[in-house]
Amino acid sequence: SPVSQSHFVMHFNTLGYDSMLVATAYGFCGLALLCSKIGFGILSKVMKFHVLSVIFLLFYTVSLTGAFLNQSMGLIPWMPFAICIVFGIAGAVCSLGYPNWVADFSTREDYPVRVKNAQSAYQIGEIVASFIPGIILDTTGTYTPWFGFAACISIVMIVIVLREYMGRKKTPAAEAEIA
User: Fold this and answer.
1) CA-CA distance, 159 to 162, in Å (whole number)?
2) 111-130 helix and 79-104 helix, angle to the nearest 10 degrees
3) Measured between alpha carbons, how far is 87 from 56 in angstroms, rounded to an integer?
4) Of 60, 87, 88, 163, which residue is least crowded by CB atoms under 10 Å?
């Protein structure tokens, strides 16, 4: 996830929202994240994982798009709440998604190595992407362009998840599980 919750807080503050309103909205983001992780776990038992991933990535895209459009809509008091709650719901896929994606494309034997590599790549991505919003803020005076760019990245993530799962060859063990 190249977007952290703190980017939303700073974004809303730079747009001119009251800091206490933003802090309260941020609290709802955490509550939504907690509930979404529980819901994600429950739903993963009854839904195909890639479908569930796409649904949560759509929430992610909606929250980023909302933050991108918020500047042009003016200061709507409920907007930080809506965006933070939707982003909190989406947060489950950002932390729970990749270990499960790795599991779907690994054998039991190579899973530990692959998940370690995925975790390393995720952390490197966090480090590399973390400075970009600040550069955009320094250059433009707002985080708005970053949220638009991040929404585009989110759409690419959806396409990648769908493409990988649609093109995936079933292993004999997976076929036996289905039967």
Assistant:
1) 5
2) 150
3) 9
4) 163
Tens of pLDDT along 146-175? 899 989 998 998 998 888 888 876 554 454
pLDDT tens per residue across span 65-106: 999 998 888 888 899 999 999 999 998 887 777 777 788 878
Please check whether residue 14 is in contact with residue 142, taking contact to mean a CB–CB distance below 8 angstroms.
Answer: yes
Residue 115, pLDDT score:
87
Secondary structure class of 27 (helix, strand, coil): helix
What's the N-to-C CA distance of the chain in angstroms?
A: 36
Across the chain, mean pLDDT equals: 85
Token duo for residue 7? 């980017």
Tell me the pTM.
Answer: 0.81
Q: What is the DSSP string of 36-49?
A: HHHHHHHHTTTS-H
Q: Give the pLDDT of residue 126.
A: 80
What distance in Å separates the CA atoms of residue 166 and residue 50, rounded to the nearest whole number? 9
For the chain, give percent helix, strand, coil, nearest 5: 80, 0, 20
* HSE-CB of 13 using CA atoms within 13 angstroms: 12
Residue 51's nearest CA partner among 107, 95, 5, 101 is 101
CB 79 within 8 A of CB 70: yes
